[in-house]
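Q: Study each token:
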Amino acid sequence: PLGEDDERYSVDLWVNDASAFKTVTSQPKCSLSDAELLSVYGEIPASITVHIAQLSQQIGAGRAACVQLDL
């Protein structure tokens, strides 16, 4: 990003209208294995909603992009 020391993204996974997993990554990608999904949710959900926002040291989180993924 212009004027930033590093690249960071906030990733927030929602199931059934509740946030259950949050992380910050310096890569423009994030993945969870089946085992990680089982650990977080107790089962593999039918779908998740992913909220991703770029983070800025100067102004905080940008507007999140959201997408629903059917698993």
Q: What stands out?
A: The two ends are 31 Å apart (CA to CA). The helical segments are 34-41. Residues 20 and 42 are 11 Å apart (CA to CA).
